[in-house]
Every structure is written in structure tokens, then in C-alpha cells.
């Protein structure tokens, strides 16, 4: 019997993130220099740990593979952690633009059937109002 072709083995998000953390460990992965506030740097290992921690938090809150999570964040490293953490956990990260109106965000949340959301304090009220019936 011939083994099936599986050209994408090891190329999924989980495998790629983990392989880079193993390969580059203490090397710099990301430097964040916001317009205001202090700069921050992550190594590949630190970033990998943050992604795994986020995924564990999702599982701890009852999210399961296939569930949808609204990611409503400004441009920031936490966006990457949330998006990749969703991928790690098998959760579908539904990304949105923080410039959306309440009606637009409600449409996104409703039609994508999110079960929860991650956001920043300045967007909390809008996200809560847009997802109140869904989450």
C-alpha cells in the first residue's frame, strides 16, 4: 500500500510557531515601539510562550476548536498573540477593525457567531454592546 501524499505536514500554524521557537529560541522575534510608552522586545521563545498561554486561557474559559472569538484590537503585539493563540487552540479568530461603528461591529459579531471577544479597555463598551446577544 502506498502512503498518502501529505505535502503540508509540519506546515500548519502550530508546527511553524513551535519550530521557530525551537530553532531561534533566544533570538529577537518582535520589537514593538509604540508612539507613546516604552518599547518592548520578545524572543521567539517568549512569544511562543505567550501564544500557548493565550490558547490555554481560551481552553480554560471553555472555548473549543471551531468556536469563534472576536479579536477587536488596535495594532499591537497582543493582536498577534491573540490571533496565533486562537490558531494554536483551534479557535477561529474573527478579526475586526477598531474603527467600525457599533452597527458594523454588531453585524460582524452576529454573522460570524462569536462566542466571546478579546479587546482593549477603550473598546470594551462597544464590544460588549455588539456581542451581548451572542456571547
Question: What is the strand and helix layout of this fold?
Answer:
Elements: H1 13-24, E1 28-32, E2 40-43, H2 44-60, E3 68-72, H3 77-89, E4 92-95, H4 102-112, E5 116-119, H5 124-131
Helix pairs in contact: 1-2, 2-3, 4-5
Describe, in plain words, how this protein is organized in 3D.
- It is built from five helices and five strands.
- The protein is α/β, with parallel strands linked by helices.
- The mean pLDDT is 93.
Largest sheet: 3 strands, parallel
Return Rg in Å: 17 Å
Q: Tell me the β content.
A: 15-25%
Anisotropy-based shape: flat
Q: What is the overall pLDDT average? A: 93
Oligomer: single chain
Extract low-pLDDT stretches: none
Beta-strand segment tally = 5
Terminal Cα separation, in Å? 48 Å
**Helix content bin:** 40-55%
Class from secondary-structure proportions: alpha/beta
What is the H/E order? HEEHEHEHEH
| Neighbour order of strands in the largest sheet | 4-3-5
What's this model, at a glance?
The chain is α/β, with parallel strands linked by helices and 135 residues long. It contains five helices and five strands, in the order αββαβαβαβα.
Q: What keywords describe this structure?
A:
135 residues; alpha/beta; three-stranded parallel beta sheet; 5 strands; flat
